[in-house]
Task: structure prediction
Amino acid sequence: MSRIVDVNLPGREYEIHIGEGLIDRADTLLAPHLRRKRAAILTDETVAAAHLARLTSVLEGAGIHVDALALPPGEQTKGWPQFSRAVEWLLERKVERGDLVVAFGGGVIGDLAGFAAAVVRRGVRFVQIPTTLLAQVDSSVGGKTGINAPQGKNLIGAFYQPVLVLADIGLLDTLPRRDFLAGYGEVVKYGLLGDADFFGWLEQNGPAVAAGDPAARAHAVQRSCEMKAEIVLRDEKEHGDRALLNLGHTFCHALEAATGYSDRLLHGEGVAVGCALAFDLSARLGLCPQEDPSRVAAHLRAMGMKTTLSDIPGDLPDADGLLDLMAQDKKVVDGQLRFILARGIGDAFVTADVPRPVVRDLLNEALASR
Ligand code: NAD
Ligand code: GLY
Result:
């Protein structure tokens, strides 16, 4: 049994299927989108080793010709060299506009393959089969595709929607716990930004989600996708409300830059620490009750996640250094930093009205506790 979340973008509607064992039905699920029986799969070597044979055998069993390219795993892949390799590979295979590119992997592969699909022949249709929790709840939905530039993360890309998303929660069983919990940071983000009941549900059921309970996992992925789809419908190109999805990200992006986009801090871990800091900041500014930041931190801590700057190994810049890194954030407008803050759990909003000294004090205190 799978659940379906609709993304009703006019003229580019698509479904997100969520359930266990979906890749065993990939042939029938992909069939309505195939104009000829061919699929070009972009994946990474880790996902390929664990799951590609199963996906390929299902598709080939239905007479669908499969080509697959496995790129090295990791954030380093999301740059020009592997991107041009993928684009040239698709062109060498004479992939046509009517064919399907399949992004089979985490957010790195989803972002890179989606962008490749957007530019090859000015647009080939593509399907997302996300294999990490982060990709199932966030990056495979909503059409942000792209790669990193030497100047910064995600600076080259396109809004390009998939025609279908298959979130097979069974694939998460092989995901290392650290990557799983990083994705859970994005799940918590949805509760914090717009659904207090969902956050309450996570406080009760987060351990079951992490332990692999299929119903709990399916619900967490479904509610996250519903919330993301709803925001993307309101504001596909991020002129307004979509920025809410960046709760915690102003801090996160600075911390990722400070740690060199390395293993010291995974993106979802930075989001969790960033959410905790955003709630701290909101309380300091008198916007939300003092108990809220404690409740956020308590849940992250109970899940065994990174929660504060002291959980990040190695040196970090001082508060002014971190503020300078924040100034590179894509949400900066006319040189003005914008934050996603909260009036309470489940009630986030975007603002540029944050005095720098308050942020500096917050960071100084957080750094001092390291
Ligand atoms: P990732 O794609 O690097 O995957 C993390 C690791 O897990 C990799 O080593 C991968 O090989 C491995 N892996 C993937 N699936 C597996 C499985 N089922 N079993 C075992 N191992 C598996 O990282 P991620 O956390 O999925 O994504 C991070 C990326 O997503 C970042 O580049 C970030 O910028 C991007 N992102 C994009 C959006 C968007 O809206 N487009 C949103 C959030 C994040
Ligand atoms: N992950 C943020 C967005 O999709 O807008």
